[in-house]
Design goal:
Number of strands: 0
Protein name: DUF3311 domain-containing protein
Helix content: 55-70%
Pfam family, one: DUF3311
Shape: elongated
Largest sheet: none
Keywords: Membrane, Transmembrane, Transmembrane helix
Organism: Streptomyces coelicoflavus
InterPro entries: DUF3311
Order of helices and strands: HH
Length: about 80
């Protein structure tokens, strides 16, 4: 094949991919930084902060993962249609 018809498989860092990475890394950082949530106050409907903070991150992680997936689909669709890499 000639060089003109080959598709570049070289990894490209774009702003969208940086946002995707941040969406996927944020929950890990939040959960690994234990010092930020090792307390009991403030409580929420009688549930100590330690527990409801972690449960909130379950929902936040879901939303961030869905966002990353949708952005990735849009990025791949743009690459297939000949948009920016």
């Amino acid at each position: 094949m000639s060089e003109d018809t080959e598709v570049s498989r070289e990894p490209v860092v774009t702003p969208v991919r940086v946002v995707i990475g941040l969406c996927l890394v944020a929950p890990f950082v939040a959960m690994l930084w234990v010092g930020s949530y090792t307390k009991t106050d403030p409580d929420f409907i009688g549930i100590p902060f330690f527990y409801w903070y972690q449960m909130a991150w379950v929902l936040i992680s879901t939303l961030l993962t869905v966002t990353a997936y949708k952005l990735w689909q849009r990025d791949q669709r743009g690459r297939r249609e000949g948009g920016t890499k």
